[in-house]
Protein 1
Amino acid sequence: MDRRRFLKYVGAGAVAVGGTAAGYYMGSRQLGRVSTDTVVATSELPPPVTTQTVTRTTTETESCLASLRAAADARDLLVGAAVEPNYFYDPPYPIILAREFNFATPENAMQWGTSNLSEGQWNFARADALVEFADKHQMKVKGHPLIWDAYQLPGWVNSDLSPDELRRAMQERIQTLVGRYRGKVYAWDVVNEAVEDQDGLRKGLFFNKLGEGYVAEAFQLAHEADPDALLFYNDYGAEGLGGKSDRVYQLVKKLLGDGVPIHGVGLQMHISATDYPNPNEIAANIRRLAALGLKVNFSEMDVRIRDLTGSLSRRLEVQKQVYHDIIAACIQEQGFIAVTFWGFTDAHSWIDSWFGADDPLLFDENYKPKPAYWGVLEALGE
C-alpha cells in the first residue's frame, strides 16, 4: 500500500466560513450525530462544556473508576486524543474527553484548508473552540499540522505559485496561526510527513518549490512566532528501527546540527494488531532520539483489528495486549512525554473510511471502555 496517500480524514462535508464552505472531514460512523453532510455555521459552534457536567469519576457501568488522565498525571505524562470540536454537541464526547485526557490535538481544526481556505481569509472558530475547551479543563494543546503538503491544502496553495509566493504563504500561515495561540498552545507539529517512504524527502509542493531547506525554515518561523512552544517533526512508519525510521533520525539529527529549533519527534503509531513494530525496537528508537536531546511522543496511535481471526472478544483482547505492550515498554524511556490516540471512540475514526469497518480505539461506539482502555490504564500504572 502506498502510505504516501494516507488520508487521515476521509469523508466529506462542509463548515461555513464567513460565507465560504470549508472542507470538513470526519470518520464514517456517525451514529445519527453530526453527519458528514451537515453544514455547521461558525456562529453555531458549541460553547465549552461547563465544568458542572464533567465528572472525574462515575460508576464502572457508565465508564471507568480510574481515569487515564489520573494515571498519566501520576507519572508526569501527557495522555491525549485527536479532537473534533463539532462533536462537543454529543454529550458523552466532551465529558469523556475532559475526564480521561490532559492533552488535545486538533484532528482538522487547524488544517490549512480549514483555517485559511481562501487567500487572506481566516476562520478560527473550530480551533478557538478546541483551545478554549482545553483551557477550561486544564488540558495542554498540540497544534497540528503547520506544514503538510500531502493533504488539506487550500486550492489557492498550489504549484502555480512562484517560490517567493509559496514562501510568503508559508510565512503568513505560521506567523498567523502560531501567533494567535502564542502562550495557549503547548506544542506544534511543525512539519508533517516530509520523509519519503523509500528514500530522501518527499517530492511534494514545498520541496519542489523551496528545496529541502523549507523544513528548517518552517521550524525557525514557528520558533519566532512562539519561542516557548515545543516544536515537533511528525511522521508515520518511523516507529521502530531501520528503513524510514533511520531517515527520520538522520533528518532531525541534521536539523539539530544546523541549529534549527526542533524539540521533538512525533511517532504516529497507526498500526495493525497483525503486524506492528517490536515494542523493544520502538523503545530503542525513542532512546536514540532522546540521546539527541529530543522529546518523543506517540502522536496518532490507533490499533486496527479487522484482519485478526477469531471472535470479536478475542480480537479485542489481542488489541488490548498490543496497546499495553507498546505503551508499557516506551513510557519507561527518558524523553518520552506523551501518547495521543487518533480519537478515542470507535464512533468517530478515520480508519473505517480508509481500511473498512474496524474498532481501533479505546472506547466503543457507545462510549463504553473496551479491553484496550484497560490495557492502556494498566500500562500507565506499571
Protein 2
Amino acid sequence: MILLKPLRVGVIGCGWIAQNVHIPAYIENPKSRLLAICDTNKERLEEVAEICNVRNRFCDYHELFESNLIDAASICTPTPTHSKIAIEAAKHGIHTLCEKPLASNLKEGEEIVKAVNQSKTKFMIGFNYRFLPNHMKTKKFVDAGKIGKPILIRGEVIEAGPYRTDIDEEEYAHETEKRIGAFFDLGQHLLDLFIWMIGEAREVHATFSTYMDNMTVDDTATALIRFKSKALGNITVAWLDLPDYQAIADSRMIEIIGTKGKIDTEFFGPSLYFYSSDSITSKIRGKIRITPVKFNPKVPDEALKWSYKKEIDCFLESIIMDRKPPVTIEHAMNVLRLTVSAYESARLKSAVSSE
C-alpha cells in the first residue's frame, strides 16, 4: 500500500542526536510531518519544541503512543530505555527507527524482535554509516570481486563520545554508563559495516580496558573477529577527545585487504582509496582516491550529515512502499549478538562463539 499523504512522525528523546539529526531531517523531508516530540526533561522538551515549532509535546511516551497522532517514531533515548519504548511502539502499531544499539542485552533484543514480528510494523536501527557513499561504493567493489576474496578487515575509531569538552567531568561516569561502554557505543558501527561488507562472524576474542579514573565501563577496546568466510577482522575503539580531525584521520579508517587488492574507506567519509592488481589504472597510478557524489574531501561533515538524511529517507520509504528497511531487525540482532559475545570474551579472556 502506497501512502499519498506524508507520514505523521514523533521523536522520543530530545538530546543531541534528536536535535541535530532526526528532528531537522523529518522537518525537511516531504515524506514526513513532525507532529510531536517527547522527553522526560520538561525544560529541554519545551526549549526544543519552541525552536522547532512543534506544538504537540509529551513527557511520557505512553501518552504519545496513545494519542493516535503519529504513524512512525524515532527512538533517540539512552540505550537502556530502547527495549521498553520499542516494544510499546510495536504494540501500538507504530513504525520505528531506533538509534543503535538495538538493546542493552540479548533478552531485550529478542523481546523487541518478537513484538515487532507480531505487530508487522517496520523497524529499523540507525546504522547511518552504511549510508555514506564511500562505504556503499566499497561494498559494491567487494561484492563485485574487485579486490578478490576479502581476507582481512580492520577498523579503528577514536571518538570523544562521553568525554567531550562540553560535558562536565563529574558527569562522565553517568554518560559512559548510558552508553554501556566504548565497544557497545562505537564498536557496533564497525561491526555493522564489517558484517554488511563481508558476511557473518563465527567467533570473537576481545580485550577491554579503562584508562579514565573512576569509570565502571570500558573506554578503550580491541577485538579480533573470525568470519564464516575465514576472513579475519580487527576492531580498535576508544573514547578520547582529540579535536584536530586531520591529526587523527588515520585512526578513523576501515581497511579491507583482498587476494587481489585493498580498499581504505574513511569511517566518517567522504572518500575511499582503491587498489587492485587487476586494474590497469591501479598499475599506472597506484592507490586511487575516490570521492563519490562530489563531496568535498576537506569537509567530512557534509557526507556524514547526508548519511543521516539518507537513513531517515530510507526508513520513510520502507513504510510508504511497504518493503523491508535496508537495516533489518535481524541484522541488528546479529550485531548485538556479536557485541555481547565480545564482552563475554573480555570477561573470560578467551574466544567466544557468536553463532
